[in-house]
Amino acid sequence: MKVRSSLKSLKTRHRACKVVRRKGRMYVINKVDPRFKAKQG
Q1: What is the pTM for the complete model shown?
Q2: Contacts of 15 by beta carbon, 8 Å cutoff, 6+ apart
Q3: d(CA 38, CA 24)
């Protein structure tokens, strides 16, 4: 999992990526290809 300052750029890397907010943190999750996981905050 990567920790990034900007998740908007990571969202466009794969069409299955979704941006999710949990407990005040932003996550990029991808069920199809888990190597695109990322978090912020």
Answers
A1: 0.79
A2: none
A3: 14
Encoding tokens for residue 25? Answer: 């943190």
- Reference 10, options 22, 30, 25; nearest CA is 30
The dihedral through the CA atoms of 21, 22, 28, 34 has a sign that is negative
Query: How large is the C-alpha radius of gyration of the chain?
Result: 9
pLDDT of 31? 92
- Count of structural domains within the chain: 1
What digits encode the pLDDT tens for the residues 1-41? Answer: 889 888 888 888 889 999 999 999 999 999 999 999 999 98
Domain residues for the domain of 28 are: 2-40
